[in-house]
Specification:
Distance between the termini of chain A: 58 Å
Shape of chain B: globular
Largest sheet of chain A: 8 strands, antiparallel
Mean pLDDT of chain B: 90
Number of strands of chain A: 33
Number of helices of chain A: 14
Radius of gyration of chain A: 27 Å
Oligomer: heterodimer
Low-confidence stretches of chain A: none
Shape of chain A: globular
Mean pLDDT of chain A: 86
Strand content of chain A: 25-35%
Strand content of chain B: 15-25%
Number of helices of chain B: 14
Radius of gyration of chain B: 21 Å
Number of strands of chain B: 15
Strand order of the largest sheet of chain B: 7-8-6-5-4-3-2-1-9
Chain lengths: 598, 377
């Protein structure tokens, strides 16, 4: 066990986490330079395109130290977005130390601080690393100073490197060996292993990533997952060395995988404890939390014939994403579909993209919503995440909506713009403090509904990319809520309804009508779009019809040409939804919530 | 309006013009005599190859290009070849497209003698500046003289082609000029009119003029107004607006040949780029006159391509072709599709289509929207 080190790399977005991981993999010779491609651990297309890590990955790096010792360095990569903070916490719980990356030119950022706190909560050894020292704009002294003042760490301990140029990598690996303590634990105790991730292999079933704290795990063992008491027989254990490498056992201190004929990933909870059925651990490892979705939206097939195909796709998708929850749903406008819960808007977009790209589904997602709470006059309480189920307003006694505690770090010069944005979004109880001259950290309470849609995008726009943002749920607060209905040609489109604060209703109504006017193409007839609360119209827009849309001649040779054009146009139209007699493009449903970027 | 099984139509494409009009993207060349005589020979060969395989025909349409540039002897040869190879029934509608400047009492007599009983005259406009702008060979005076000759020749079935919806340089907008052209045309008592809204086609000089800002096209709203005016005016004069661009003096004046394109009756097309259709099968000849001649010299059919229409494709064609004519389409073609009932209600409510006796047909305003209507179902 003394030759194992378990660590993570934590950093603000863009501070070079994935690049450093790549360099470590390359340096330790796990892949040849020839096989090397950038950002090995980000295996999904979406991860590469967006430059973020969505799934945790781990890899065991073989390393011979300067002193000649052979080590197994387990790098546990963590997702890099607020939507996935629970996964991050489980990955950190599996480590003894972290590399805390600070960009030499950007310095300490909001997420750097948040990540540091997370690591400290798990009592991890922290190695500050100043990255990107090759950049002309690198200011190593300022970075050191911030490490002292803002992070409270000893800056003499900070290592310098350039992951991009491969500078300082060996020193880093040496520091991992020297400074991060080897795992403690005993292989003689009952098995206790923490699940920090799982993914689905179509041939082998669920592949569980885990960190063994005590005991040992071998093929043939019957394991028990302590959360749901399910038992499985272990088929294979091993290490992740880019590809899976089977081993005879995973003993205390190790990080690796287990395969045990677990059919779906939904049977596995991140944070759960694996023990042996025959000799169970006395208690599960601490920190387990059931992940709860915060954003809800319904997914419908564009063509109702594809309902079954969508159902199959979701089932398959769910194999690899345990945090997606869904159940059947139906809509007057869109037919049969599924109500889904997501960890956040990014998660929602990822699911949408993957269903379209990897599963070839043509889908419509309805306007996202958070979960509201209504106390009714009859004394009951209902939780509503779908505007369709908004209670009869006459029955509602009090309404509540979820709030978050937002923490926003910005250069001082953007303070006015950010304040305006936050006030627009009903932020309250703002507090400020100045971690360093020129920078402000704002904390404030905001309704979750106001941030889930495009708050982060807007923040980046008004701060020209300098603002960073993090949040945690802070509970429900009473709120004056109404349901905003959208009518297209007098017909209510339930998939476009949303629950909003009364004071924001008109603004939303105007925005949605305007956006739909842009999104819906001209038709043969006039289209009226209205926003309504109860029976009262609060906003409207009109799409004027075509006045002339005809070609003058159609004789012998024109017919085939014209038919081919129509066939092509029909194919394009297959990606739209006909509601009433109006064709609404797929994009319209989510677009209505995004405020126009000036 | 029963679906009586109709006889076949025969089309012959004469791909030559003396000069090319500036708006035209039809297949025609301004070729010399040699190519023309080669083409005629090839056409005779095509007739032989197709002989007896198609028909009987109750319509023959000689179109182009400009069929009237054929010399007397050439035209006689052509008609002889057609008569020899195909069964054209008694009472068939036999049309020739004629350019006004090719009209003479002598030629009109020849057409009659050869059996042509319908003339389609490419009048296009009766405004001097417009004719020049369109790049036509004929002027107004010449045209009026030609119309006079046609009228006195006692031909009962005469159609004029007219174009509207464009604006020549320095000309006042369309409506008043167009109305004058229409009234003047009617004074010659045609029994059929094809009024085409100007379309700026791909590779034409008009496209260039438009891009250079030297041609102005009316706005969507103005075109709508012009179209509605044309339809209302001609109907008030007793014409039937039976297809987007076509008007007939009476039920007897409908162009029988063109109707075959719109209701999937069989038709055989001869000549370069001509299309044929029979029982779900469509095929077409090569476009190039030289390749057409070359293939037939070798005794091969000058085929370029063919397609077998699936039921779905056939239905789609029925739909869009039907929605271009006053006959419309069988309602079942629309209603079968999910959600179609509500769209149909909407269109009925907006008076874009009407429904009667199990058929759905476009209104005057519906004609104006015909391109997009099939996409709704």
């Amino acid at each position: 066990m003394s030759n194992i080190r378990n660590f993570s790399i934590i950093a603000h977005i863009d501070h070079g986490k994935s690049t450093l991981a790549d360099r470590l993999i390359q340096y330790t010779g796990l892949v040849s330079d020839r096989q090397f491609r950038d950002q090995i651990l980000d295996t999904m297309d979406i991860e590469r395109e967006r430059g973020i890590t969505i799934k945790s990955q781990s890899v065991t790096l073989p390393y011979r130290s300067k002193a000649g010792g052979d080590y197994e360095l387990n790098l546990i990569d963590t997702p890099g977005h607020v939507d996935f903070s629970y996964e991050v916490s489980r990955a950190l719980a599996s480590c003894e130390g972290v590399l805390l990356l600070v960009d030499a030119s950007q310095g300490v950022e909001a997420q750097t601080v948040a990540n540091l706190y997370a690591a400290m909560e798990h009592d991890l050894t922290i190695i500050p690393v100043i990255n990107k020292i090759d950049l002309p704009s690198a200011d190593i002294e300022r970075a050191r100073e911030q490490i002292e003042t803002e992070l409270g760490l000893d800056s003499d301990q900070a290592l310098l490197c350039s992951a991009k140029e491969g500078l300082g990598i060996q020193e880093l690996l040496e520091a991992i060996v020297e400074r991060i303590p080897p795992p403690r634990g005993s292989r003689d105790l009952p098995l206790s292993a923490l699940i920090f991730d799982a993914h689905y292999d179509p041939f082998r079933g669920t592949v569980v990533s885990c960190r063994v704290f005590d005991g040992a795990l071998r093929p043939g063992d019957v394991i028990r997952l302590m959360y749901n008491d399910a038992t499985y027989k272990v088929e294979e254990v091993g290490l992740f060395r880019i590809v899976r490498e089977p081993r005879k056992e995973l003993a205390a201190g190790s990080v690796g995988y287990l395969i045990a004929g677990i059919k779906t990933i939904g049977d596995v909870r991140v944070g759960d404890t694996v023990t042996l059925d025959a000799r169970p651990a006395p208690a599960p490892l601490p920190g387990f939390k059931e992940v709860k979705p915060v954003v809800f939206s319904s997914i419908y097939p564009i063509s109702s014939d594809d309902y079954q195909s969508l159902s199959d796709a979701l089932e398959k998708y769910k194999l690899n994403d345990a945090s997606l929850v869904y159940q059947k749903d139906s809509s007057a406008a869109l037919g049969q579909g599924f109500r889904c819960g997501f960890l956040g808007l990014l998660h929602l977009e990822i699911v949408q993209e993957r269903l379209e790209r990897e599963f070839d589904q043509a889908i419509i997602m309805t306007v996202p919503s958070v979960q509201y709470e209504f106390r009714l006059k009859d004394g009951t309480t209902v939780m509503v995440d779908n505007p369709t189920y908004y209670p009869d307003p006459m029955e509602i006694e009090r309404s509540f909506e979820p709030f978050i505690k937002a923490s926003i770090l910005i250069p001082e010069r953007y303070m006015g713009a950010v304040m305006r944005l936050c006030m627009e979004r009903r932020g309250t109880e703002s507090k400020f403090h100045y971690p360093t001259p020129g920078r402000i950290e704002m904390t404030l309470e905001m309704p979750l509904a106001e941030v889930v849609f495009d708050f982060y995008d807007r923040l980046k726009t008004v701060t020209q990319g300098y603002g960073s943002f993090d949040y945690e749920l802070s509970g429900y607060r009473e709120s004056d809520l109404v349901k905003l209905d959208i009518l297209v040609n007098g017909e209510k489109v339930d998939a476009l309804s949303l629950i909003v604060h009364r004071l924001r209703a008109r603004e939303w109504g105007v925005q949605v009508c305007d956006r739909l006017k842009e999104e819906i193409p001209r038709h043969q007839f006039k289209i009226a779009i209205q926003g309504a609360i109860g029976g009262k119209i609060i906003s409207r827009s009109t799409i004027s019809p075509f006045r002339k849309d005809v070609t003058a001649k159609c004789y012998g040779g024109d017919i085939t040409r014209k038919r081919k054009l129509l066939e092509k146009q029909k194919k394009g139209k297959a990606r739209m939804k006909v509601v009433g007699a109006v064709t609404i493009p797929q994009s319209a449903f989510v677009a209505v919530l995004k405020t126009k970027q000036e | 309006m029963s679906e009586a099984p109709s006889l076949a139509g025969l089309y012959v494409h004469v791909p030559f013009c003396l000069s090319k009009c500036r708006y035209c993207d039809f297949d025609s060349t301004t070729a010399h005599a040699d190519l023309l005589s080669e083409w005629l020979q090839a056409l005779e060969e095509e007739c032989r190859l197709r002989s007896g395989s198609f028909g009987p025909f109750d319509s023959l349409y000689l179109g182009g290009g400009t069929p009237s540039i054929l010399e007397d002897r050439q035209l006689e040869r052509l008609v002889t070849a057609l008569d020899r190879s195909f069964d054209i029934v008694q009472g068939a509608e036999i049309t020739i497209e004629v350019n006004p400047d090719d009209v003479s009492p002598h030629r009109l007599a020849l057409y009659r003698a050869l059996g042509f009983n319908r003339i389609s005259l490419g009048v296009q406009s009766l405004q001097e500046a417009e004719l020049r702008f369109l790049g036509r060979r004929h002027g107004v005076k010449q045209t009026l003289r030609a119309l006079e000759w046609v009228r006195s020749a006692g031909l009962h079935r005469v159609s004029f082609d007219l174009i509207y919806g464009f604006c020549a340089e320095d000309q006042p907008p369309h409506r008043s000029l167009w109305e004058r052209t229409l009234r003047k045309a009617l004074s010659f008592d045609p029994d059929h009119l094809s009024c085409y809204m100007m379309t700026i086609e791909g590779e034409t000089p008009f496209r260039r003029l438009l891009d250079e800002g030297r041609l102005s096209v009316p706005s969507e709203g103005e075109l709508e107004e012009l179209f509605l005016f044309t339809s209302e005016f001609l109907e008030s004069e007793g014409f039937i607006h039976y297809e987007i661009s076509n008007f007939a003096r009476s039920e007897l004046s409908l162009c029988r040949h063109n109707a075959k394109y719109w209701d999937h009756s069989p038709y055989l097309g001869l000549g370069p780029s001509a299309h044929s259709y029979r029982e779900g099968m469509r095929w077409w000849n090569v476009r190039s006159v030289r390749r057409y001649c070359h293939k037939l010299r070798k005794g091969e059919l000058p085929l370029e391509g063919s397609e077998m229409l699936s039921k779905e494709q056939l239905d789609l064609e029925k739909l869009f072709l039907g929605l271009r004519t006053r006959r419309g389409v069988e309602a079942r073609l629309l209603i079968e599709r999910p959600g179609a009932g509500r769209i149909l209600d909407r269109l009925l409510g907006s008076r874009i289509v009407e429904m009667r006796e199990g058929r759905v047909f476009p209104t005057r305003r519906g004609f104006l929207l015909a391109d997009g209507l099939p996409l709704l179902f």
